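Record type: ASSEMBLY
Status: queued
Input:
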Amino acid sequence: MAQIQLKEIGKTYADGYEAVKGVSMDIADGEFMILVGPSGCGKSTLLRMVVGLEDISSGDMLIDGKRVNELAPRDRNLSMVFQNYALYPHLTVYENIAFPLRLTKGAVSEEEIKRRVADAADMLELNDHLERKPANLSGGQRQRVAMGRAIVRDADAFLFDEPLSNLDAKLRGQMRTEIARMQRRLGQTTIYVTHDQTEAMTLGDRVTVLKKGVVQQIASPRELYEQPVNLFVAGFIGSPPMNFLPARVEGNTLQLPFCEVSFGDEFAGKVAGKDLVIVGLRPEFIKDAAIQEPMENAIHFEADVDVTEWLGNELYAYVPFEADPSVQAKLDELDRDLDGEGMRTQMVVNLESRSRVREGERAKFFFDPMLMHVFDPETGENLTRNEEAAAKIAAESEEDRKRALDRAKRMEAEASAPA
Amino acid sequence: MDATPKQKWSLAAVSIPVMLWTLVPLFWIFSLAVKPQSIQADNKYFPREFSWENFQLITTGTASDLFNPALVNSIVVCLIATVISVVLATFCAYAIARLNFPGKKLILLVSLAVSFFPVISLVTPLFDLWRNIGLFDTIPGLVIPYLSLTLPLSIWVLSAFFQQIPWEMEQAAQVDGATSWQAFRRVIVPLAAPGVFTTALITFFTAWNDFVFAISLTSENARTVPAALAFFTGASQFEQPTGAISAAAVIVTIPVVILVLIFQKRIVAGLTSGAVKG
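Status: finished
Output:
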């Protein structure tokens, strides 16, 4: 168990490429921290710097207040699960898990090794496979062996480097809950790198969103979703992604492609001097007027639906629109940052599955303007971010985390207490 | 890679002539070795009579004081050369595969260039040098040239092996708490075992079969079997020592056959996995 602090950590490669720029974060004892971002954002490099496989070019890294920049990986007492598992193919599952314990001669007795490997195998349901070689295991089993090797040692923290990206979708879901359960049970500080936002949202106590080596936002999943600080975070978090619509500012109204929204004076100051902004609206906030009762202040609009996708539990409707050329460049850039393909501009609407909206037809929609975000097209900054609400969410999440940790510790104590 | 039955048969059809081509002379040697002295020159491929006469001659008879010490020398020289060569080549290849240091390419090129020199061109200067510094007719006097002969190939084969082992294996070991040495010994070397066996065998065979160095750099004390064979004499000056030489050749082939049988699987894995990636 440990607290990990990064202070202005930077990484510059020999060829001058800056992979990580001035990253600072505090990871509390027992916290599950996620590093997420599109490929090439420096998240894996950052993790490898934490574990000691990459040199830290600038800044300080502290574990429990002690500076560890110059320590070799083996002296940092962290354990890591690699993307391709990095199991030792010449050793059996048992020996793979026991490997870290055998390295210091005589430090751990043979019975102690046996007990600890058995504990890890129990937790990960590997008991039937202990005598097999990694080559004969399925992907999910290999993944569990790699986790076994990480938990068998009393490491100060667990680090995961995209551990689920080599598994198929079904297994990924199972392993995700498995990791969450294990982390809660062990109450271990964890840093987890992923490019998958579902993993980021479901697993993390807090999530760090990175873009090109720079931290965009460090917050709980709920805060990222509800109060993103900028265009990038808003576009990265959420699936299907947030719709970005160009909007012209005219007096106290915003002219969107399908409708217009008027705003009060307190907001007018923020958009003063701008004649164009980007409006962000999540697909799930747009409702089908035919089946749902609109709220009082709802904004109504009509649009031609191009394509629909019915998924059983929900229905996606795609509505194409023409983007203003002056905003189009910004939206294209954002799309590239998010590993997008530079597709046509369209709005996605996430409707209930009983909706009768069909492709090629004109449909009536409405949305709550309070849930709308407005972004500055130049800086990408979120002009509607509510700091008060954000702070409240952060406090709530922190409280949730502590409660979960306490509960886990209590259960652990009860389990180990003599009956 | 699974071959269809048709492919298998055509492969067999091609390999049978090759096998005959190599096995006919081998059996001829065996045949000569078991023919008694009296019918040695009867020009028959298959022996009509069978006797241990030639084997007795070289192991306990008149040629034994020539052959037995030579056999011991051969074994000692080859084992020492193999052990040193494998250890040095493993370290060297590991450094080449894993570390970035200036002159890395140069070392690889030089080691390749060394093996370009024809052995015979090295023998005369070595002979002079060895006599001056007292290495002539000693076991180290043979081990050193064998090392220079086998190290280049060993380094090339092994560094190919090490390069195939994913970096992450080693990084995982380091994170697990291993020192560089522990990671090398407990993870890298076992994974490269086929390569290590392959180079060990290559070295052993090169030294075991060498004639040029053995005949030029030794006289009484360190002479190995291939060189000793040249000094066999017949019972009289009108008789060729063909039978004795063949018997000795059969005996020195036995360890080679045993080694190959023991390590057969590993060599095949080694030679192919070194060449084909994935």
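Annotation: The two ends of chain A are 27 Å apart (CA to CA).
Annotation: The CA atoms of residues 164 and 172 of chain A lie 6 Å apart.
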